[in-house]
Write a structure and sequence with these properties.
The structure holds 3 protein chains of 3 kinds. Chain B is an all-alpha fold. Chain B is built from 11 helices and 2 strands. Chain B has a domain of 196 residues. Chain B has a two-stranded antiparallel sheet with strand order 1-2. In chain C, strand 1, helix 3 and strand 2 form a beta-alpha-beta unit. The chains are: A mainly alpha, B mainly alpha, C alpha/beta.
Chain lengths: 347, 292, 421
C-alpha cells in the first residue's frame, strides 16, 4: 500500500491549486502597488506569455499526453485562431472590410477557436489512422499549408506585410489594451488559464478522458473494450485545436500586430519542446514547461549572440538529467531521498 | 525540350540532396527506431568543415572531402554515444530522444554561427575554368552533375555495404532483432553507433555537394530539413530505397511545379500532394508499417 | 577570432560536460556563468549593459536580431550603433555625461520585439530607441513607443511603418518607394522591353515591388512578361527561374534578401542568362559579389548606401571615417548597409538631444522633427516631411568588373547596353 501524503490527496491538490491561483492574483497586484518588489511591466508581459503558452501546451497535452498523438504542426491552429480573431474583429480587414460590422474581440477569439477546432477535427480524419512519423509529417505539412495561405492570400491577410492596429479586448466597458495596462491583460489571461485548466481536469477525469488514456496505452485493446478509437481521436484533435486556437487569439490581441512569420513550423517545435520539457500527461507539466522555457530564454538575454547556443545546451543537459520532463523532478528527488533513507535503514 | 532537361537536372540535384538526408533518417530509424532532427544541421556543419579545409586552408578538394566526411562520421558516433545511448539506458520515452535531437540541432546551428559567423560563405568552385558545360543546347553546372554522380555512387556503395559485407549484414541483423543479434555475438551498440556515424557522413557529403550551389550558410539546414523528412516518409519511413525514391520525387515535384504550374503555390501544392499521398497510400511507396 | 576561440572552448566545455556524465543543472549554470565573464571581458567596444542607467546622461535602447534568421543584418546594425555611441563618448558624450547603451536580442521575431520594447522602456528606462530594421517588429511596438513618449529612429526601408500616424517614429534612410522610378529609368536606359520578375515574399520586398509595378504601369515601353514568387524558406529556384527564362525576357528583376538574392543570381546565371538583373538595396551586400562571383556583373540596383571594397574607396570623407572606425573595431567592413543606417540613426538621435539640451522625450521628438543634418545617406531634412521621413529617392548602382559603381558613371564610360543579351 502506498502511503498518500496530504498533498497527494484530492483535497490537498485542490488546496495547492487554490493557493497557486491566489498567489498568481495577489503577487502582481502587490507589485503593481509597490508593496513587494516594484512595479514591473516587463514581468507582466512575460506572465501574459507564460499564461498563453500554458493554454497552448495544455491543449497539446490533451492530444499528446493523454491520447498519445504527436503533432509538429500546432502553430497552424495557433495561426488560425490568431488570424481568425483579427479578421473577425478588425475594422479594415476581413469581416469589417466586407460588411462594415465587426465582432468584439473576446467573441471573435471564441469563434476563431471554434474554426480551429473544426479544422482540427477535419485534419484528424486522415490523421487518426497514422502512426508516429506519418502523423509528424502530416502535421508538419498542415502547418506549412496554413502558413503559406496566411502568406499568399494577400487580399485576405495582407500577406507578409501583416496587419497592424489589432483592436484591444474590451469587456463590460473595461479596455484590456496592453499599451495602457499590461496587468489587466494578465488577469484576463489568468482567468482563461484557470478556466481551461479546470475544463482539462474535467475532461481527463471523465469517461472521455479514460477513453483517451486507453487509446494512448493500447489502441487495439481500447477498441476491443468498446472505445470508438477514431471518434475519440477526432475529439482529442478538436479539443486540442480549440485550446491552441483560443491561445492564438489571446496572443494576437496582446501583441497588437500579426504577420505570418510568427506561425512557422519552428513555433510548433517550441510548443512541443515546452510540453515535453515540462512533462506530459498531467496538469502541472504544461504550466512548468511554458514557464521554464520562457524564463530560460529571457534569462539568457545577457549572453547576446551566445544565447541560443547556451539555450540548446541547457535544454540538452536537462533532458539527459531528467528524461521525463521537469514535472517529474519532485518524484526523482523524493525517490532519491527515500532510496537513501531505505539504504540507511538497511545499512 | 531543353527546358525540360535543365529542370530535370535541377530537380535531380535537389532530390539527391534531400536523398542524402532522408537516407540517413531511414538508416537511423531502421537501426534504432528513433526519429532524428539533427540530420539537416549536420549537413550544414559538414559543409562548413569542408569549407574550412578547402576554402580557408586551401587543401585539395578530395582531401578536404575525405577529412570532413571522416570528422562528421565521428561526430555522428559521438552524438549516439553521448546522448542517444544515455537516454536509452535511462529508459526515456522515444519522444524524449526526439527532443534531445532538437536540442542538438539548436546547438549545432548556433555553434556554426559563432564559429563561422552568420554570413554566407562563398564555397570556391571545385572545377577550374567555366562553371557550366553544354549538353546539346542546355547549359548545366558542372557542380550539379558532380552532385548527382557522387550521390548515386554513395547510394550504390551503401547498398553493397549493407548487403555484401559482414559488418553490413550485422547492422541489418541488429536492426531486425536486437536480442537475437546480440545472441549471435553481434555488438549491437557498436552497429547502432556506426549507423549514426554513416548517417552523419552522408549528410556531410550532401552538404559539400550542394555547397557550391547554396554556399556554406548556417541557415541552410532549416530550409531543407522538412523536405527531406517528407522524402523519407513518402518512401516509407525506415526503408532506405524508399527514402531515395521519395526524396527524388519531392525534389522533382518541387522543381516541375515551380516551373509549369505556379511559383506562389509551389509549396502549397507540394505539401498538398504529400497530404493526399498520405491519405491514399499511407504506407509510403515501399510499404512501411503505418497503422497502429 | 576571439569568437572562434571562445566557441571552441565552449564546445569543449560542452563535450566535457557530457563525458563527465553527471549532467547536472548546476553545471549548465556554472558553464553559462563562465561564458558570461569571458564574453564580457572580451567585448572591447560594448558599453557594459549591466551598469545601471543612473550613471549616464542619456541611454539609448536598441532591439534587433543578432541570432535567428536575420543575424547578419542585425549584427551589422548592432555594431553600427555601438560604434556611434563610442564615437560620441570619446568626444565628450552628450548633455555633459556619457551615453549608455541597452540592448535586447529579439531574435528577429515580433514577439521578441514586444518583449524587447517593454523591457527597454520599463526595466531600463531608456531615453531614446533605435529600432530593428524589420518593419513588422517596428509596427508591433509602435503603439507602445508612442504611449511611452520615447523618440525612436528606425533603420528599415519599408514605407509602411511611417504611414501609421505615430509621431515619435523617424527614419534614418530614404524609404524604398523612392527606388522604383530610378530603377525603371535605368531599365529604359539599358533598353529593357520585356521584364521577368521574381519576388521574395517578405514584407520589405513585396512592398518595394508594389511601388515598382505602379511605375511600370505608367511605362508602356516595358512589358512584364513573367511575375513569379519565391517563398520564405526555399533555397532552390531552378523551376521558377526556368519558367521566367522561358518567357524570353531581356531583363530580369529579383527582389529578395541578400542571402537569397545571391543564390538566385548564381542560379540564374547557371541557367544561361547573361543579361541585366535588377534589384533592391539588398544587392549592395558585399556577399552578393562573393557568392555570385563573375555572375554579379551586370546587376543594377537602387540603394541608399553602397559598401565599397575598402575604406579608401568611400564616396565621402564622412563615409571613409565611419568605415575606418568600423574596420578598426570589428576587423572587417560592414556585412550590410544596415550598419550605415544604424550609425546615422544614432547620430540623428544624439544630435537632436544635444540641440534640445534635454533628454525629455517630447522635446527631443520636436527637435528631430525640425532637424537638418548631414548623414551618410545625404543631407537629411526632417522638416521637409511631416511623417518622420528625412530623405527621398535612391541612388542607382551597377556591378561592373567586380565593383559597385554609380550607374551614371557607368553610362558615361560604357555603352549602356553592354550587358544586354
Amino acid at each position: 500500500m502506498k502511503e498518500q501524503g496530504f498533498f497527494q490527496s484530492k483535497k490537498g491538490k485542490t488546496v495547492i491549486a487554490v493557493v497557486a491561483i491566489a498567489l498568481a492574483i495577489i503577487i502582481p497586484l502587490m507589485m503593481d502597488n509597490n508593496i513587494i518588489f516594484t512595479q514591473n511591466k516587463y514581468f507582466y508581459v512575460l506572465l501574459c506569455l507564460i499564461g498563453i503558452y500554458t493554454i497552448v501546451t495544455s491543449g497539446l497535452d490533451i492530444l499528446f499526453g493523454y491520447t498519445g498523438q504527436i503533432s509538429f504542426g500546432h502553430a497552424g491552429f495557433f495561426c488560425i485562431g490568431a488570424y481568425g480573431s483579427v479578421l473577425l474583429s478588425h475594422t479594415q480587414w476581413g469581416l469589417g472590410k466586407a460588411t462594415g460590422y465587426v465582432l468584439t474581440p473576446i467573441l471573435s477569439i471564441f469563434i476563431a477557436a471554434c474554426i480551429a477546432a473544426a479544422v482540427g477535427a477535419l485534419l484528424a480524419i486522415p490523421a487518426s489512422k497514422l502512426v508516429f512519423h506519418f502523423l509528424s509529417m502530416l502535421t508538419i505539412a498542415f502547418n506549412q499549408i496554413v502558413y503559406l495561405i496566411a502568406n499568399n492570400f494577400s487580399w485576405l491577410t495582407n500577406g507578409s506585410i501583416g496587419i497592424t492596429s489589432v483592436p484591444a479586448v474590451t469587456l463590460f466597458g473595461i479596455s484590456f489594451a496592453t499599451t495602457t495596462s499590461k496587468l489587466k491583460y494578465y488577469y484576463l489571461v489568468l482567468f482563461f488559464v484557470v478556466v481551461f485548466l479546470l475544463v482539462k481536469t474535467h475532461i481527463v477525469n471523465s469517461r472521455v478522458g479514460r477513453g483517451l488514456i486507453a487509446i494512448r496505452e493500447n489502441p487495439t485493446a481500447a477498441n476491443g473494450c468498446g472505445v470508438n478509437v477514431a471518434k475519440y481521436k477526432i475529439m482529442s484533435f478538436a479539443i486540442s485545436a480549440f485550446y491552441v486556437g483560443f491561445a492564438g487569439g489571446l496572443y494576437v490581441h496582446m501583441i497588437g500586430f500579426i504577420s505570418p512569420d510568427t506561425f512557422v513550423q519552428n513555433t510548433s517545435v517550441i510548443f512541443i519542446t515546452m510540453l515535453l520539457f515540462g512533462g506530459s500527461g498531467n496538469l502541472v507539466g504544461p504550466i512548468l514547461g511554458a514557464a521554464v522555457i520562457t524564463i530560460i530564454q529571457e534569462g539568457l538575454q545577457f549572453l547576446a549572440d551566445y544565447r541560443m547556443l547556451i539555450y540548446g545546451i541547457v535544454l540538452l543537459l536537462i533532458i539527459l538529467f531528467q528524461p521525463q520532463g521537469i514535472a517529474g523532478l519532485g518524484n526523482t528527488i523524493s525517490g532519491a531521498v527515500s532510496k537513501r533513507k531505505r539504504g540507511a535503514a538497511n545499512g | 525540350m531543353s527546358t525540360f532537361i535543365s529542370l530535370l537536372i535541377g530537380g535531380l540535384v535537389l532530390g539527391c540532396t534531400y536523398g542524402m538526408l532522408s537516407l540517413g533518417l531511414s538508416l537511423i530509424y531502421q537501426a534504432s527506431g528513433f526519429m532524428n532532427f539533427t540530420q539537416a544541421n549536420l549537413l550544414m556543419f559538414g559543409a562548413f568543415v569542408c569549407y574550412q579545409f578547402f576554402g580557408v586552408w586551401g587543401l585539395p578538394f578530395v582531401i578536404s572531402l575525405i577529412l570532413s566526411v571522416a570528422i562528421m562520421f565521428g561526430v555522428g558516433c559521438l552524438i549516439e554515444r553521448l546522448v542517444i545511448r544515455r537516454l536509452v539506458e535511462k529508459h526515456a520515452k522515444n519522444v524524449y530522444v526526439v527532443l534531445s535531437t532538437i536540442a542538438i540541432s539548436i546547438i549545432i546551428e548556433n555553434l556554426a554561427m559563432l564559429i563561422w559567423n552568420s554570413r554566407q560563405h562563398y564555397f570556391p568552385s571545385i572545377f577550374s575554368g567555366s562553371s557550366s558545360v553544354k549538353i546539346g543546347s542546355v547549359s548545366v553546372g558542372k557542380e550539379s552533375l558532380l552532385c548527382i554522380v557522387v550521390a548515386l555512387v554513395a547510394m550504390v556503395a551503401l547498398h553493397f555495404f549493407l548487403n555484401k559485407t559482414k559488418f553490413g549484414t550485422a547492422m541489418r541483423a541488429a536492426a531486425m532483432n536486437k536480442t537475437a543479434a546480440s545472441c549471435m555475438g553481434i555488438n549491437v551498440n557498436r552497429t547502432i553507433s556506426m549507423t549514426y556515424g554513416i548517417a552523419a557522413a552522408l549528410a556531410c557529403l550532401g552538404g559539400i555537394l550542394i555547397a557550391p550551389k547554396m554556399t556554406a550558410y548556417y541557415q541552410v539546414g532549416n530550409q531543407i530539413s522538412m523536405k527531406s523528412f517528407a522524402g523519407a516518409v513518402i518512401g516509407g519511413y525506415g526503408n532506405i530505397y524508399g527514402a531515395i525514391v521519395g526524396a527524388l520525387f519531392v525534389g522533382l515535384l518541387e522543381t516541375f511545379v515551380g516551373a509549369y504550374i505556379s511559383s506562389a503555390y509551389k509549396e502549397l501544392i507540394v505539401y498538398g500532394v504529400m497530404i493526399v499521398f498520405m491519405i491514399v497510400k499511407p504506407s509510403g511507396l515501399f510499404n512501411a508499417k503505418v497503422y497502429e | 577570432m576571439k569568437k572562434r576561440v571562445l566557441s571552441v572552448i565552449l564546445a569543449a566545455t560542452m563535450v566535457m560536460g557530457l563525458l563527465a556524465g553527471c549532467s547536472s543543472v548546476e553545471e549548465a549554470e556554472s558553464s553559462a556563468a563562465e561564458e558570461t565573464t569571458e564574453t564580457e571581458s572580451s567585448s572591447d567596444t560594448s558599453s557594459d549593459s549591466s551598469s545601471s542607467s543612473g550613471e549616464y546622461s542619456y541611454v539609448i535602447g536598441h532591439y534587433g536580431g543578432i541570432t535567428g534568421t536575420t543575424a547578419t543584418v542585425g549584427t551589422a546594425g548592432y555594431n553600427g550603433i555601438q560604434l556611434a555611441i563610442q564615437y560620441w563618448n570619446d568626444n565628450g558624450g552628450v548633455l555633459g555625461g556619457q551615453i549608455g547603451f541597452e540592448f535586447y536580442d529579439d531574435g528577429g521575431t515580433t514577439e521578441g520585439a514586444v518583449k524587447a520594447v517593454t523591457y527597454l522602456l520599463e526595466e531600463k528606462n531608456v531615453d531614446g530607441l533605435i529600432s530593428s530594421q524589420l518593419s513588422g517588429n517596428i509596427q508591433a511596438t509602435g503603439d507602445q513607443v508612442e504611449a511611452a513618449q520615447v523618440p525612436e529612429v528606425g533603420t528599415g526601408m519599408n514605407p509602411a511603418w511611417l504611414e501609421q500616424g505615430w509621431t515619435y517614429l523617424f527614419r534614418s534612410v530614404p524609404n524604398n518607394a523612392g527606388g522604383a522610378q530610378p530603377l525603371v529609368d535605368a531599365m529604359l536606359t539599358v533598353g529593357v522591353t520585356d521584364l521577368g520578375a521574381m519576388i521574395y515574399q517578405d514584407d520589405g520586398n513585396t512592398s518595394a515591388w508594389a511601388y515598382v509595378t505602379e511605375v511600370l504601369e505608367n511605362t508602356p515601353e516595358i512589358t512584364l512578361v513573367a511575375e513569379e514568387q519565391a517563398m520564405v524558406g526555399e533555397s532552390d529556384w531552378t523551376g521558377t527561374l526556368t519558367s521566367i527564362l522561358n518567357k524570353n525576357p531581356n531583363g530580369v528583376l529579383i527582389f529578395a534578401q541578400g542571402e537569397q538574392a545571391s543564390l538566385m543570381i548564381k542560379q540564374l546565371r547557371e541557367l544561361g542568362y547573361e543579361g541585366y538583373i535588377f534589384g533592391p538595396e539588398t544587392f549592395s551586400l558585399p556577399d552578393i559579389r562573393n557568392v555570385a562571383g563573375d555572375g554579379a556583373n551586370g546587376i543594377i540596383f537602387f540603394a541608399p548606401h553602397c559598401i565599397p571594397d575598402s575604406a579608401d574607396e568611400a564616396n565621402s570623407e564622412a563615409e571613409q571615417e565611419f568605415l575606418e572606425l568600423y574596420e578598426a573595431a570589428y576587423g572587417e567592413l560592414p556585412a550590410s548597409d544596415v550598419a550605415y543606417r544604424a550609425w546615422d540613426a544614432t547620430n540623428i538621435l544624439l544630435t537632436a538631444v544635444e540641440q534640445a539640451g534635454t533628454a525629455d522625450g517630447p522635446t527631443v521628438r520636436d527637435t528631430i522633427a525640425n532637424l537638418k543634418i548631414d548623414i551618410l545617406a545625404g543631407s537629411a531634412d526632417f522638416s521637409a516631411y511631416d511623417n518622420g521621413e528625412c530623405l527621398s529617392g535612391q541612388q542607382i548602382y551597377i556591378t561592373h568588373e567586380g565593383k559597385n559603381i554609380l550607374f551614371s558613371t557607368f553610362c558615361e564610360e560604357n555603352d549602356p547596353s553592354l550587358y544586354m543579351q
